[in-house]
């Protein structure tokens, strides 16, 4: 049966067959030229496309039902069966195909049997092909299509998750091929003749095959997904529910009409009125609509996350202790960020002064975080509700600010901030992870909230355990320091014994010139040993504060700067008269230490800046340098830890001592630093007037009591 002439449909059919042939040949050539896709199945797919193109050419030239076209149809199917077998080798399943091999051999035998039948009928009588073999060939075609679909199901259904990303496009091609053939042969079997419309469309299959394989061969095809949106599904199911409601309404109304007797009309009207009122009341319920939306998302959609894979990746990221470049805090951020494909994040934890501050940042160097990052109201609100905050929803007003913890203004003003995940341990907020907005931004939903909340609790336990271990390690360092002091006391005791012996001998031999010379050498050696010992123990003396008194902070800063006049450029940028409540020697010791650290961190051509100002009820002394800077991890875990020094031969108690002195004077020491940019140390002490007023109020209160 040749393609007919006359009418529009034969022209459309011929064009479809020609387009299918051309697209298959082009796609086959492209696959052979690009070896990056489909692995070991690439050549077999190119062969199958070539045979499909030859079949389409024969159909366009000789006719759809010509013997050459029929034989090439069998060859096309054999080519796709061979391609299917080669696709099994992508993940190594060709070696374990014992249950599938009989089906593959059976389908291959069916195709060969069809080809042999066509050849025998042609040898017997060319016209007998349509008269004698129609039903036989249709039955064999049905068997081949069904067997092919079974093989496609096993190819894709039993594949691994990684292999499916590569197999889904060829599997879709094979499913379209044998699905179309199954439909074609079923219609032909039932009608007793070939369907003319499907005959014309068969040639267009080549265009579909080539397009799908080319789409799967392009870069990024693994990320392509066809998922109807939640909104579209919700609206479609809403329409379906409305339709079902109307059907039930009509059915009940008809039943009332048949059984209601004389009051049928009144019963119908009353029922319809009540049903419509109930529908309007339910439709206006926000709570019901929200519940319906969440229920549909939970039960009709595939979960966004593979929880087993996510948990394995989570534990692997947190447990990468061998990576010395990443601290536990940075790994904690990354473990949460990987869940939502966030490109960066921040971790806020409770510092030694009880305020939440920046503890670590991961791939987010531009975020500006104040020293006091979270107010107490926000911390208590997160502890009460363990609320995962969608910051975009808060900004847009989709979520009321009354239903979630009060988010600080600096966080809402940060454009990259996307979500805030609390880390709760024993109902206490251990930390807060701020996630950066991913490249493809989306609204967080119930599944994100559930997974992030559970992961946050797990991270909180890790951080709490790490904090306990560090406390034990610090206690061990104190024990070590006590042992060191024992050795120091032993050295001092030896020096004291040596000096006592020298004093006794001086009473007897003071007039001997040789003894006097030896005595001077001994005294000099003893003094050098004591000075070296004192230099190792402390640079600036004791850390206790005796008496607080009004002290001019600007004068103290000027005195310290004068000591560096010939050593390094230290500039006083602002020097407002500022009288604070402090101990002069202790304050000078702290400023001297911080300026010295700033000088050590800077090169010779980088000046250090000092600023004195009054801020509300506090006096402020700022020391700023443009040196190497410090990471948030170093500030949090090492800067103020005693006996942990980055300087050769240092005890590591200078910064710790400075902070404790400031605290003893009723103030606090704040640190802001950025690696490669520099550091700012800020000393905040109560103004003398404010301290005197507070002291007088406390004295008055004690007298009243």
TrEMBL record:
Q: Which UniProt keywords apply?
A: Kinase, Membrane, Phosphoprotein, Transferase, Transmembrane, Transmembrane helix
Matches recorded under InterPro entries: GAF-like_dom_sf, HATPase_C_sf, HATPase_dom, His_kinase_dom, Sig_transdc_His_kin-like_C, XrtA/PrsK
Q: Which reaction does it catalyse?
A: ATP + protein L-histidine = ADP + protein N-phospho-L-histidine
Which Pfam families does the record associate with it?
HATPase_c
| Membrane-spanning parts | 12-32, 44-64, 70-88, 100-125, 137-157, 169-190, 196-216, 237-257, 263-283
Q: Give GO terms: molecular function aspect only.
A: protein histidine kinase activity
The enzyme's E.C. designation: 2.7.13.3
Q: What class of enzyme is it?
A: transferase
Q: What NCBIfam families does the annotation carry?
A: PEP_his_kin
Give the protein name, as stated in the record. histidine kinase
Q: Which organism is it from?
A: Novosphingobium aquiterrae
């Amino acid at each position: 049966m040749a393609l007919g002439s006359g009418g529009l449909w034969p022209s459309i059919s011929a064009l479809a067959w020609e387009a299918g042939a051309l697209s298959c040949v082009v796609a086959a050539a492209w696959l052979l030229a690009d070896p990056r896709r489909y692995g070991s199945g690439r050549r077999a797919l190119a062969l199958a496309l070539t045979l499909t193109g030859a079949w389409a050419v024969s159909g366009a030239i000789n006719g759809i039902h010509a013997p050459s076209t029929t034989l090439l149809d069998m060859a096309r199917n054999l080519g796709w069966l061979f391609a299917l077998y080669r696709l099994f080798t992508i993940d190594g399943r060709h070696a374990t195909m014992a249950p599938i091999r009989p089906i593959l051999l059976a389908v291959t035998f069916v195709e060969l049997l069809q080809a042999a039948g066509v050849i025998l009928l042609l040898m017997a009588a060319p016209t007998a092909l349509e008269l004698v073999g129609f039903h036989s060939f249709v039955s064999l075609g049905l068997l081949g299509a069904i067997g092919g679909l079974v093989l496609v199901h096993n190819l894709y259904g039993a594949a691994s998750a990684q292999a499916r990303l590569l197999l889904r496009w060829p599997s879709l091609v094979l499913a379209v091929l044998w699905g179309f053939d199954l439909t074609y042969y079923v219609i032909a079997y039932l009608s007793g003749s070939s369907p003319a419309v499907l005959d014309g469309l068969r040639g267009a299959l080549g265009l579909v095959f080539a397009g799908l394989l080319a789409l799967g061969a392009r870069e990024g095809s693994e990320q392509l997904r066809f998922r109807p949106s939640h909104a579209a599904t919700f609206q479609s199911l809403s329409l379906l529910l409305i339709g079902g409601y109307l059907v039930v309404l009509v059915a009940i109304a008809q039943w009332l009409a048949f059984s209601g007797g004389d009051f049928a009309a009144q019963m119908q009207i009353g029922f319809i009125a009540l049903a419509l009122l109930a529908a309007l009341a339910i439709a206006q319920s926000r709570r019901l609509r929200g519940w319906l939306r969440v229920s549909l998302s939970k039960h009709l959609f595939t979960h966004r996350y593979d929880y087993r894979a996510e948990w394995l990746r989570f534990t692997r990221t947190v447990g990468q202790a061998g990576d010395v470049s990443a601290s536990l805090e940075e790994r904690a951020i990354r473990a949460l960020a990987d869940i939502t494909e966030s490109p960066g994040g921040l971790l806020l934890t409770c510092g030694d002064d009880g305020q939440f501050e920046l503890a670590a940042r991961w791939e987010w160097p531009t975020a500006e975080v104040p020293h006091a990052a979270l107010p107490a109201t926000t911390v208590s609100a997160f502890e009460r509700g363990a609320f995962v905050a969608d910051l975009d929803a808060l900004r847009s007003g989709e979520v009321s600010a009354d239903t979630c913890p009060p988010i600080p203004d600096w966080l809402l003003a940060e454009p990259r901030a996307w979500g805030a995940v609390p880390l709760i341990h024993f109902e206490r907020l251990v930390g807060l992870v701020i996630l950066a907005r991913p490249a493809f931004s989306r609204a967080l939903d119930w599944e994100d909230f559930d997974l992030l909340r559970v992961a946050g609790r797990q991270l909180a336990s890790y951080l709490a355990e790490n904090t306990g271990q560090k406390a034990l390690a610090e206690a061990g360092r104190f024990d070590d320091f006590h042992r060191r002091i024992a050795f120091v006391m032993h050295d001092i005791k030896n020096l004291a014994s040596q000096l006592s012996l020298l004093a006794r001998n001086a009473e007897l031999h003071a007039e001997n010139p040789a003894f006097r010379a030896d005595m001077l050498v001994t005294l000099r050696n003893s003094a050098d040993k004591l000075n070296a010992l004192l230099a190792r123990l402390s640079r600036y003396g004791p850390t206790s504060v005796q008496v607080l008194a009004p002290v001019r902070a600007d004068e103290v800063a000027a005195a310290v700067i004068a000591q560096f006049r010939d050593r390094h450029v230290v500039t006083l940028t602002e020097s407002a008269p500022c009288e604070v409540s402090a101990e002069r020697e202790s304050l000078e010791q702290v400023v001297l230490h911080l300026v010295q650290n700033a000088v050590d961190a800077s090169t010779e051509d980088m000046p250090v800046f000092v600023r004195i100002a009054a801020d509300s009820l506090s006096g402020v002394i700022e020391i700023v340098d443009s040196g190497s800077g410090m990471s948030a991890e170093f500030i949090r875990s090492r800067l103020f830890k005693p006996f942990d020094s980055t300087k050769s031969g240092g005890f590591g108690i200078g910064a710790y001592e400075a902070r404790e002195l400031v605290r003893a004077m009723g103030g606090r020491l704040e640190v802001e630093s950025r690696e490669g940019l520099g550091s700012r140390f800020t000393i905040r002490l109560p103004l003398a007037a404010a301290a005197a007023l507070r002291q007088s109020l406390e004295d008055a209160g004690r007298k009243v009591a």
